[in-house]
Specification:
This protein folds into 3 domains: 60 residues; 95 residues, 2-Layer Sandwich (Pseudouridine synthase), CATH 3.30.2350.10; 99 residues, Pseudouridine synthase (2-Layer Sandwich). Helix content is 18%, strand content 29%. It is built from 6 helices and 16 strands. Strands 5, 6, 7, 8, 9, 10, 13, 14, 15 and 16 form a 10-stranded mixed β-sheet that branches. A 4-stranded antiparallel β-sheet has the order 1-4-2-3, with no helix packed on it. The protein is elongated, with a radius of gyration of 22 Å.
């Protein structure tokens, strides 16, 4: 896969600095050099010491990312929301694990993506998961289709430029219409989950109440930090655990047997095209049945 960049008047003259300004990290630059100098200036193999003239066209040729033979291929379907040469966005069902692990190495999201790409004749067969979800959380997941897209997406994430919005059904009512839950989170040393702890990492969850009944409240949620189980831990900490969330004492008798949490919206400015990418995943049937 090849990309080209044109040096403008105010861009760095140094080749490495110029590529870094276009999202090619120092580590990626070294990898391209070690792979046989896959960097070109005006069609010729680049001299790292040369200065770039204004208008120079710098080409970068990334080697194909070969399939890991230890990652099984699954022919089970995935619900593709959007796909181009750089990105794959899909709607993950609740119950599907994202990456292979000791409990499941045959049919996770990564296994299904590998099967999907093999069927489509893709040359890059290594999914780079950008926005992970818990196994029993449903909704939108962003995947980079090659290492350069992965680098740019991680930069967007670091700058908090990937908008993610969640929809949840939490127990009880009486929540403020709009508030932040600002409580530090740490791993629970005596269990499998997370816990509120003064010695934990800072965590900020912002929510808006949408609908309330005697038994539950629907909320729209944005995370300003990315801690493990953050939404689930925070709402449990204020006495309103997510419905169906057994790990954090959520009610199990209100019509749903998994955490009622859904990654509903995803948006970002595409660094390859400068277009706004915006996606919405419908509320799944098990959560919709409670509301209806």
């Amino acid at each position: 896969m090849q990309f080209e960049f044109t040096r403008n008047e105010n861009d760095p003259e140094n080749l490495k600095a110029f590529l870094n300004s276009r999202g090619i990290s120092h580590r990626m630059y070294r990898g391209l050099k070690d792979a046989g100098n896959r960097i070109f200036v005006d069609g010729n193999q680049a001299d790292p010491a040369a200065k770039l003239n204004e208008g120079a066209v710098v080409g970068v040729s990334f080697p194909d990312e070969q399939s890991d033979p230890n990652v099984a291929v699954s022919d089970q379907p995935i619900s593709v929301v959007y796909e181009d040469s750089n990105w794959l966005i899909f709607d993950k069902p609740a119950g599907l694990t994202v990456v292979p692990g000791p409990a499941n190495r045959e049919d996770t999201l990564v296994n299904r993506i590998k099967g999907h790409w093999q069927r489509n004749g893709e040359v890059n067969l290594v999914p780079h998961i950008i926005t992970r979800l818990d196994r029993f959380t449903s909704g939108l997941v962003l995947v980079a289709k090659h290492r350069f897209a992965n680098s740019l997406a991680n930069e967007l994430s670091d700058k908090k430029l990937i908008h993610k919005e969640y929809f949840a059904i939490v127990s009880g009512n009486g929540l403020d219409k709009h508030a932040h839950i600002d409580k530090p989170i740490a791993k629970d040393p005596d269990g499998f989950g997370q816990m509120i702890s003064d010695g934990g990492k800072s965590a900020d969850t912002e929510y808006w109440v949408e609908e309330q009944t005697d038994m539950w409240t629907t909320v729209r949620v944005i995370l300003h930090t990315g801690r493990t189980h953050q939404i689930r831990v925070h709402f449990a900490a204020i006495g309103h655990p997510v419905l169906g969330d057994e790990l954090y004492s959520g009610p199990l008798d209100l019509g749903i047997n998994r955490q009622a949490l859904h990654a509903k919206e995803l948006a970002f400015d595409d660094p390859f095209t400068n277009e706004k990418r915006s996606f919405v995943a419908p509320i799944p049937e098990d959560m919709k049945a409670i509301i209806d």
